[in-house]
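so my prof wants the structure for this chain in the tokens format not the other one, which i didnt know existed until like an hour ago. anyway here's the sequence
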Amino acid sequence: MSYPAQPAQPDPNAPFGYDPQGRPYSDKSKIVAGVLQLFLGGLGIGRFYVGNAGVGVAQLLTCGGLGIWALIDAILFFTSNDRTDSQGRVLRG
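here's what i got, hopefully its the right format
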């Protein structure tokens, strides 16, 4: 009698898997963070989303660096593969 294979249990330290360098993926998406930063970056919403409250408050107080900081931050969220959340996990893309 053959039993079906048991599904692999997710790693509790990395429920979304690991990137090619072996770093755990975050539950946050870099696309969502980039869109939030692009449209609401003057309020620091993209930074609050990924858990960087300190930078989010700084962007809120400076209106996203008069929009320049927010725009550059949004571009970096979209293009960089090394952006992490507040727990140091790589953002999924």
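also thought this was worth mentioning. The radius of gyration is 17 Å.
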